[in-house]
Amino acid sequence: MRVSPETLFYILEKIRPYLEKYCSFRKCIIPEERLVVTLSFIEQIDKNKIMKTTFIDRTFNKKKNNT
Q: In a 3-state reduction of DSSP, which class is residue 11?
């Protein structure tokens, strides 16, 4: 999944207050990086669901065709 820079900055503008953190003992992850990591994680979950569904469909279709 690709997100245009304009869309990324639009989303970031809307949720920035929720992504900002105060850290006193280490350098915080900036909101831009937090958003990118979160979107990447969501994308990976989606890919895994698609792979799982594809695997299950192929497995059951093979069993149906073999019987």
A: helix
In angstroms, rounded to a whole number, what is the distance separating the alpha carbons of residues 37 and 67? 45
Long-range pairs for 52-55 at CB < 8 Å and ≥24 separation?
A: none
Please check whether residue 31 is in contact with residue 20, taking contact to mean a CB–CB distance below 8 angstroms. yes
Nearest to 38 by CA among 46, 67, 62, 64: 46
C-alpha 5 chain-centroid distance: 16
Tell me the one-letter amino acid at 43: E
The one-digit pLDDT tens for each residue of the chain (67 residues) are 677 889 989 999 999 988 887 777 788 888 999 888 888 888 888 777 777 777 777 777 766 666 5
